[in-house]
Input
Amino acid sequence: MKVCVVGTGYVGLTTGVSLAYLAHDVVCVDLDQAKIDMLRSGRSPIYEPHMEELLAAAAANLTFTTRYEDAVPGADVVFVAVQTPSTDDGNPDLRFLRAAAESVGRHLSGDFTVVVNKSTVPIGSGNWVDAILRESYEQHNSRRADGEFSVASNPEFLREGAAIHDTFYPDRIVIGADNRRALDVLNQLYRSILNQSFTPPSGLGRPDQMAAVPLVSTDLASAELIKYAANAFLALKISYINEIGQLAGRVGADVREVARGIGLDSRIGSRFLQPGIGWGGSCFGKDTAALLATAAEYKYDMPIVNAAREVNQRQRTLVVNRLLDELRIVKGRKFGILGLAFKPNTDDLRDSPAIQIAELLEARGARVKLHDPVAADRFRRERPELAANLVNSLEEVFDDSDAVVLATEWPQYLELDWGKFVGLMRNPLVLDGRYSLDSERMAKLGFRYIALAGPAISA
Ligand SMILES: NC(=O)c1ccc[n+]([C@@H]2O[C@H](COP(=O)([O-])OP(=O)(O)OC[C@H]3O[C@@H](n4cnc5c(N)ncnc54)[C@H](O)[C@@H]3O)[C@@H](O)[C@H]2O)c1
Output
C-alpha cells in the first residue's frame, strides 16, 4: 500500500520504517529539514535500538521529504504522528495536529485515503481532524469532499527503547473507525503483523510465545479513550508501588520483595511495579493531565489519576529530602547524577525525573554533575542552561562528591566496577533512585547505600 507518515519523531519514524520493512511504499514528511537530511543519509535523529539497521533494510521502500506534495497525493493511508505536548491547563497543544491536518487536506487526491490519528489526541479529535481536512480540501479543490477520505484512530503503545520490537510484536492493535472501508484498509495494511506472517528483521526475532495479534476494532471515541486509559493505568501502577515503597520503608519491609510478591499474582502482573523516583517521559505526564482536563470539561473529577500524578511528583522531592536526612546540609555540596534520559535505552529527556532532581538540588545551592551515556548531546541542545553541569567521565561524577544519585538504570551503570570509584568521593554515599543496585555489595565496597526509603546500609 502507499503510505504517508507525517512527523518523523519517535512514533512516526518507527511506524514509517517498520511499514516500509513490511513492503509498503512509505514516504515520511517532516518540517524539520535537519531531521530529513539525516534520515536521507541513513542516520537516525533519535537514539532507538535497531533503528539504523532497519532504515538500511527498508531503504528501497522508504523516502523522506519536507514537502507534503511529494507525500500525500495518492496515498492509501496517511498517518499523523506529530507531537501533542501539554499546555499549562493540562490540555494538549493541538497546533501541530491542526497544521498537519490542514496540509494533508490541501494535498489529498486519489480515490480513497484513510487519515489516521496516531498521535495521542483528546477524545473527539477524530471529528475535529475530519472537519479540518474537509475545510482544507474544499478550499483547495473548490468543491465539496464526498467520500474521498475518512479519519480513523490508531493509538500507539510502543515503548521508547523497544519501539521497533513493540511495533512488530504488539500486544494488540487498536483501530477506531466509524467507516467500514477505513477499517478494511487498515486491516489490510497491518495484516502481516496481525497474523505474524512477516520474516522478522535481523536481530529482532519473534518472541517464543508470540501468537496472532488481537485487533481491537472499535469506534473513534473508544479508541481515543483506550490510549489515555492505558497510559493512566500504567502511571498509577508505578505510583502505587512507590506509595507502598514509602510505607515499606517506615515499617521495615523491603518494597522489592513486596513488588515481587504481589506481581506474581496473575491478576496484578509484575510489570510496572519497579519502585523508584517515578515515571517521566513525554507521555504519562501529559496524558494523565489531558485525561483530567477532559474529565473537567465534562464536570467530572478523577481522584485516582490525580493521586497518581501527585505521588509521582512527590517521589522527586523525596530524593532531596533523603539526601538532606543523610547530609543535613545540601547547600554547597557536590552531587553526581547518573543518568539523564527518563529511562534507559532512549535519549528522550522530556519530563525526566533526573533533570528535575538536579534542578531541585541546584535551587538549594548544591553543585550537580550530570552524566548520561547516550543523551548528553541531546541534553546540551535542549537544556543549554544546564549544559555546563555535564561531565564527560564517570571519574568526574564521583570525584569529590558528597553523594551520587543513580537516576536512570542504564545497564552501563548497573554493571559498573563501583569499587574503582568509591575512593574518589568526599563522602561515599550512593542514593539508588531505581532500587537497582545490590545494597549488600555496595556496602562491602565501602559505600553507604540508601534507597528512597528504608535504612541506610553500610559495612
Ligand atoms: N514517544 C512515545 O513513546 C509515544 C508513544 C505513544 C504515543 N505517542 C504519541 O505520539 C505523538 C508523537 O510523539 P513523538 O514522541 O513521536 O513526538 P516527536 O516530538 O518525537 O515527533 C514529532 C515530529 O513531528 C514533526 N512535526 C510537527 N509538526 C509537523 C507538521 N505540521 N508537519 C510535519 N511534521 C511535523 C516534528 O518536527 C517532529 O519530528 C504524540 O502525540 C505522543 O503523545 C508517543
About this structure: The CA atoms of residues 136 and 142 lie 10 Å apart. Residues 6-12, 29-32, 35, 81-84, 96, 99-100, 119-120, 156, 158, 160, 282-283 surround nicotinamide-adenine-dinucleotide (CB under 6 Å). The mean pLDDT is 97.
